[in-house]
Amino acid sequence: MPNTHWAFLFVVLLAHSCNGFYLPDSYMHTYSTGDKIFAKVNSLTSIETELPFSYYSLPYCKPDEGIKKSAENLGELLMGDQIDNSPYRFRMNVNESVYLCTTPPLSEHGVKLLKQRTRDLYQVNMILDNLPVMRYATQNGIKIQWTRFPVGYTPQNNNEDYIINHLKFTVLVHEYEGRGVEIIGTGEEGMGVISEGDKKVASGYEIVGFEVVPCSVKYDSETMIKLHKYDNITSPSCPLELEKSQIIRQQERVSFTYEVEFVKSDVRWPSRWDAYLKMEGARVHWFSILNSLMVIFFLAGIVFVIFLRTMRRDLTRYEELDKEAQAQMNEELSGWKLVVCDVF
Ligand SMILES: *[C@@H]1O[C@H](CO)[C@@H](O)[C@H](O)[C@H]1NC(C)=O
Ligand SMILES: *[C@@H]1O[C@H](CO)[C@@H](O)[C@H](O)[C@H]1NC(C)=O
């Protein structure tokens, strides 16, 4: 009887896993012109300290609907990330430059915190349509790429810190040629799961790249404070002079702005991760994989030892009983022997 129960449970589990969830990033989203897409923010991280902090522990602009955790897919859950929503709003194929918010005058505590995070080289992790933001820079003539941008920066031989408050985004999009059906996931035996509802000819744009140029811009807070969230501004140029950058200092008000350009790209959706795979720094991932494997083996070892001890105790008890006693005891067998038929 328990055998049938298990078989039933197995079937239920199988059926559930078939349409229950999709593998991370296996779901292609197409957007039409004007569709709103909000970026997400992950914890602030630093290679210096390894200790992550929540994005909203710094005085960044908050979304209108409040801060919500949005671990949306298996990948995000498995990484143990703290992914929150953000007010960075993108409208497909709308190039714009907008105002977000202005902080109250910075307090002594706020200044200390911002300076500390800047000096500890904390970085912002932003995600759009599952793609981490990519930043390119040239250092000593070598082109390098990162998947995050700094909270602020400290010029050399300088005691002051400057905050990144303007972000220039480039979103690469690929025009989607509708094939009538959309493969939205991978089911059993590698077969594509095709959504029945989307059998009409689909068209739109896929997001295949997300890049940022971070800047520090000094705004006149008196004029900025009169603006509303998402009001258009004239796009500032990234200043090279420190006098035109936003310093982190007590009583300063920091205005946050961003601009976005949508650029058509030949990169197709399945290849959109190629740029990331070329990156260096996979060492950290190997380390965490090794770490997880060790934990798994350790726990499996504990379970195995407990299992072995229980089995051995049962077996020695059976051996101690001579044959006649065993025959009498046949109805009251207990422990491992009772379930051995069910397991195998
Ligand atoms: C702001 O600029 C965008 C893109 O140029 C435009 O679509 C939008 O209507 C503008 N908004 C206002 C309030 O002017
Ligand atoms: C947005 O800007 C990019 C780059 O300047 C340009 O190629 C594209 O045509 C612009 N899109 C619109 C809708 O104006």
From TrEMBL:
Query: Where is the protein situated, by its record's location annotation?
Result: Endosome membrane; Golgi apparatus membrane
What keywords does the record list, in alphabetical order?
A: Endosome, Golgi apparatus, Membrane, Signal, Transmembrane, Transmembrane helix
Give the domain of life.
Answer: Eukaryota
Signal sequence: where?
Answer: 1-20
Its topology with respect to the membrane?
A: Multi-pass membrane protein
Give the UniProt family note: Belongs to the nonaspanin (TM9SF) (TC 9.A.2) family.
**Lineage summary:** Eukaryota, Viridiplantae, Streptophyta, Embryophyta, Tracheophyta
* Name this polypeptide is given: Transmembrane 9 superfamily member
Which species is the source of this protein? Answer: Linum tenue
| Keyword Membrane carried by entry | yes
| GO BP terms in the entry | protein localization to membrane
| TM helices/strands, residue ranges | 286-308
Q: What GO cellular-component annotations does this UniProt entry give?
A: endosome membrane; Golgi membrane
